[in-house]
C-alpha cells in the first residue's frame, strides 16, 4: 500500500497548487490527480451537488487504490471532509485547517481576511478553524466568485485581471488586516494581482505549503512513505479539456505534464493507469 499513489482531487486546475508543494516537499511520492473541470466551478453550487461531485471523484480515486486522499479544494473540504473521513478507511486530508494554521502563525495584529468561493465563505469553515485554535482572531470573509473562471480559462496574465481583482477586494480597503487567506486553491495563480492590490503589508496565505507538511507528517506517522526507488509516475486526469489543463499545469508547475481526459461520470470504472 505504501507505494500506491496519493490521490488528489479538485474541481479543476486549482489543486495543482497543492501538487506543486507535494513535489517540492515529497518528491518521491507518486500522484494520481483528478480535476473535475467539466463541472467547475463548484463554489456556486448547492452543498448537496458539491458533495455528489466530490464523492464521485473520491470514490474513483479510492477504486484506483490510492493510499491517501487529499481534497485539494476548499469548497469540497468545507462540504465533505468530515463525511469523507467516515466513508473511507485511508487518511483523508483537506486544505482548510492547514490554511488556518498558517494564518495564525503569520498574523501579528490578529486580523485575518479570508477569500474563497461562495460555498466556502458561507460554510464559515475558516472562522471556525481559526477560532478552534485562537479565539482572539478577528476575521473578514469575502467571497470572490469571479476568480475561478479567470484561472480555469488561463487568463491570469490578461489585462482585465487587475481591475476584477481590485473590485473584488475593495471590502478590505479599510479592514486593517495583515494576513489574507487565499481560501481557494485556484487563487494562488492570481497571487501576483492579489498582492499588488493588497500591498506589501498584507501576507498572503497559500494553504498548499502547510497541506503538504500535513501529508508528509501523516505518511511518516503511519509508515506510508513510498519506498520504491523508481521515478514516480504521476497521472493527471481531467473531465474537461486536457490540452487547456496541460497548458495551465505546465505554466504553474514549471514543467510539462501529460494530461488525459477522463470523466468519472461517463465511465467510472474504465480508467487504466497504464493505458490512460
Ligand atoms: N479550487 C476550489 C477551492 O479551493 C474551488 C473552485 C470552484 O470550483 O469553485 O475552493
Task: Please describe what this structure looks like.
The chain is an alpha/beta fold and 276 residues long. It has two domains: 6-94 and 209-261, 3-Layer(aba) Sandwich (Rossmann fold), CATH 3.40.50.1860; 96-207, Rossmann fold. It has eleven helices and ten strands. A six-stranded parallel sheet has the order 4-3-1-2-9-10, with helices on both faces. The longest helix is centred in the first third of the chain and has 17 residues, at 47-63. The chain binds D-glutamic acid. D-glutamic acid binds at residues 10-12, 14, 40-43, 73-75, 117, 120, 148, 184-186.
Give structural attributes.
276 residues; alpha/beta; Rossmann fold; 2 domains; 6-stranded parallel sheet; 4-stranded parallel sheet; 10 strands; globular; binds D-glutamic acid
Secondary structure elements and pairings:
Blueprint (H helix, E strand, L loop, with lengths): L5 E5 L5 H10 L5 E5 L11 H17 L4 E4 L2 H14 L4 E2 L2 H11 L4 E6 L1 H6 L1 H9 L4 E6 L3 H6 L8 H8 L10 E4 L8 H8 L4 E4 L1 H14 L13 E4 L3 H12 L5 E3 L15
Parallel strand pairs: 1-2, 1-3, 2-9, 3-4, 5-6, 5-7, 7-8, 9-10
Bound molecules: D-glutamic acid (DGL).
D-glutamic acid binds next to helix 3.
Amino acid at each position: 500500500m505504501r507505494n500506491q499513489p496519493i490521490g488528489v482531487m479538485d474541481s479543476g486546475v486549482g489543486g495543482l497548487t497543492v501538487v506543486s508543494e507535494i513535489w517540492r516537499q515529497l518528491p518521491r511520492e507518486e500522484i494520481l490527480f483528478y480535476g473535475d473541470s467539466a463541472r467547475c466551478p463548484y463554489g456556486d453550487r448547492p452543498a448537496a451537488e458539491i458533495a455528489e461531485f466530490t464523492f464521485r471523484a473520491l470514490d474513483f480515486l479510492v477504486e484506483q487504490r490510492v493510499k491517501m486522499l487529499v481534497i485539494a479544494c476548499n469548497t469540497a473540504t468545507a462540504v465533505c471532509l468530515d463525511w469523507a473521513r467516515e466513508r473511507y478507511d485511508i487518511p483523508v486530508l483537506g486544505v482548510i485547517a492547514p490554511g488556518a494554521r498558517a494564518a495564525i502563525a503569520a498574523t501579528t495584529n490578529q486580523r485575518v481576511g479570508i477569500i474563497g468561493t461562495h460555498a466556502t465563505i458561507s460554510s464559515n469553515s475558516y472562522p471556525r478553524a481559526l477560532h478552534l485554535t485562537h479565539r482572539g482572531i478577528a476575521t473578514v470573509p469575502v467571497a470572490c466568485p469571479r476568480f475561478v473562471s479567470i484561472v480555469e480559462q488561463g487568463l491570469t496574465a490578461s489585462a482585465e485581471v487587475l481591475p476584477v481583482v481590485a473590485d473584488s477586494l475593495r471590502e478590505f480597503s479599510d479592514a486593517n488586516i495583515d494576513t489574507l487567506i487565499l481560501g481557494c486553491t485556484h487563487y494562488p495563480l492570481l497571487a501576483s494581482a492579489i498582492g499588488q492590490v493588497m500591498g506589501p503589508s498584507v501576507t498572503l496565505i497559500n494553504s498548499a505549503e502547510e497541506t503538504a507538511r500535513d501529508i508528509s507528517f501523516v505518511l511518516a506517522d503511519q509508515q506510508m512513505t513510498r519506498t520504491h526507488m523508481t521515478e514516480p509516475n504521476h497521472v493527471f486526469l481531467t473531465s474537461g479539456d486536457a490540452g487547456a489543463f496541460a497548458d495551465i499545469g505546465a505554466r504553474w508547475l514549471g514543467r510539462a505534464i501529460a494530461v488525459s481526459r477522463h470523466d468519472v461520470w461517463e465511465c467510472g470504472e474504465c480508467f487504466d493507469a497504464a493505458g490512460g
